[in-house]
Design a protein that fits this description.
Blueprint (H helix, E strand, L loop, with lengths): L1 E4 L4 E14 L6 E13 L8 E8 L3 E2 L6 E3 L3 E4 L5
Antiparallel strand pairs: 1-7, 2-3, 3-4, 5-6
This protein binds zinc ion.
Length: 84
């Protein structure tokens, strides 16, 4: 999973509410995070082609239930990158 800067992107928010499981980087506990699915426009080498990348925006601040550390917040997008 990768966090990217929200300000650098053009995001299209769809009203798709989902929940993701995220592992606490601090203690390893798995937490459920409510998210909205959005699409990010990525600049492409070919100008006429728009590349949309699906990402997830947490809809609220989520703290780990075990250690209390913040693991997700609305301005930090969650992306799932496939290995090439
Ligand atoms: Zn934790």
């Amino acid at each position: 999973m990768v966090h990217i800067g929200y300000q650098d992107t053009k995001a299209r928010i769809l009203n798709i509410k989902k929940s993701l499981k995220m592992k606490s980087p601090n203690c390893g506990h798995w937490n459920r995070v409510p998210v909205n699915k959005i699409f990010i426009e990525q600049p492409s080498s070919e100008r006429k082609v728009k590349v949309l990348i699906p990402m997830y925006e947490p809809s609220e601040v989520v703290k780990c239930k075990k250690c209390g550390k913040i693991i997700a917040e609305p301005k930090q997008l969650i992306g799932i990158r496939k290995k090439k």
